[in-house]
Amino acid sequence: MNYGLYLSAAGIQTSTYRQDVISNNIANAETVGFKKDVPLFQQRLTEAQSRRRGISGPSGPDAAGDPSDMTNPLLEPLGGGHWLAPTAVDLSQGELEPTGNPLDVGIMGPGYLRVSDGQGADHLTRDGRLLVDSTGKLIMANDQRQKLLDVKGKPIQLDPRAGATIDKQGLVTQNGKPVARLGVYAVPQPGLLRKQGNGLFSYPDMGQATAQASGFELRSESVERANVDPATELAALMDTQRQLEANANMIRYQDQALSKAVNEVGKIG
């Protein structure tokens, strides 16, 4: 089998994966609190390297001389191409956008709002679109099952008939009196955050998420936009499409070369 076919096929798979990730970022460029995904790749070892055979010893192949251990010294420097790695999440700050809603908050700096669905599942979010339900609970506007938690991890109870404001440190005030404080939680290892949809993140040990995060500021009547630059993502998408096309062309060229080798070069006069 032509070794180049495997490399080009791997290139098509990784380019398709990168294309999907970038497309998803572009689709969520207007999603509040969205954090873009970063497609990652890793070097793929050759078969001989992955089995730790055929490259040991002073003469290349193992001294045993087993044919299954043999490798071509001319092909080994080509490497095994590249392969997929786990997708990372870019947690960098997004721009803040004014909304005029006194219950909306945008987080400047580190930290996450903590929410609970009341069924024992807590999540973190940067989506600060909030509202008060009919029972007085402060909830997420885009997922009304999720109740906002205070610095002690308790749902925030407000008077649904009175207006409320939120200051820079998360203090919630109604009728001129402080009634609660939003919990802005820090996580010791942000790389362990996993997306759960609707702007929510899970963390392996929510007990390690501690309030209050430091170095943050809440901006009332604002929300955090997605940290996606559409122009940059579109440029990356075009580059990925060119790579995908190049690998597809390489497969076609190698297929044509194999066809000539079998049907023309190999003919007996």
Describe the structure.
- This protein has 269 residues and is an alpha+beta fold.
- The protein has 2 domains: 3-44 and 80-91 and 229-265, no CATH class; 96-224, no CATH class.
- It contains 3 helices and 18 strands.
- The chain has helices at residues 3-27, 47-50, 230-265; strands at residues 37-43, 82-89, 96-98, 105-108, 112-116, 122-125, 130-132, 138-140, 147-148, 165-166, 171-174, 177-181, 184-186, 194-197, 200-202, 210-211, 217-220, 222-224.
- Strands 5, 6, 9, 13, 14, 15 and 16 form a 7-stranded antiparallel β-sheet that branches.
- The longest helix is centred in the C-terminal third of the chain and has 36 residues, at 230-265.
- The chain starts with a helix and ends with a helix.
Helicity range: 10-25%
- Total E-strand runs: 18
Figure out the total of helices: 3
Beta-strand proportion: 25-35%
Sheet/helix structural class: alpha+beta
Uncertain residue segments: 53-65
